Amino acid sequence: MDIQTFSQADILNFEKRFRTQFVNALSGFKSGNLIGTVSLSGVNNLAIFTSVVHIGANPPLMGMISRPNSVPRHTLENIEASRFFTINHIHRSFYAKAHQTSARYSVDEFSAVGLTPDFKDFNAPYVQEANIQIGLEYVQRINIEINNTIMIIGRIVEVHLPNEIIEPDGTLAIEKAGTIAVSGLNTYHTTQKLEQLPYAKP
Amino acid sequence: MDIQTFSQADILNFEKRFRTQFVNALSGFKSGNLIGTVSLSGVNNLAIFTSVVHIGANPPLMGMISRPNSVPRHTLENIEASRFFTINHIHRSFYAKAHQTSARYSVDEFSAVGLTPDFKDFNAPYVQEANIQIGLEYVQRINIEINNTIMIIGRIVEVHLPNEIIEPDGTLAIEKAGTIAVSGLNTYHTTQKLEQLPYAKP
Question: What does pTM read for this prediction?
Answer without folding.
Answer: 0.97
